[in-house]
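Need tokens for this chain, all 153 residues.
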Amino acid sequence: MTTSDIQDSALAKAARGPDGFVLILVLSFALSAVVILGWAWRSGINHFFSAQNGANLFPGFTAEQPGGTPHGLVVTSLRSGSEAAQDGVEVGDAILAIDGRATNTLDQARRYLRDDHQPALSLDLMHQKQLRHVRLLRSASGENGAQVAGGGG
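Here are the structure tokens for all 153 residues:
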């Protein structure tokens, strides 16, 4: 009898009784939890929750990274009556730069907007294959994740 035969026999005996079933069930749940926590740790737990915070990142619109591409932001929705909507920003426009800084990910945009305290935001957009420059005021409430400088509106 080999070591693997003994292990297989012990596992088979444990699996036959109700206590063995419970043990296998608990071990499989524990293994699943370890795998999920490992994935969250490896991918960065902040990145895991970042999509939920994207709604308040830009003044008057939301943007996301298109699925399947590691770089680039695309406007996904506009707030009715917002300055962005009035200035001709449309769903599907690609965001190339914020205040002249190339922006490829939501994390880059979030870090920049959190640290920048200017009352206005300049965007370089690709709109129907044409480059557009749009300047938007930030709200006094800091809805886009950045504090507005004194006197900004």
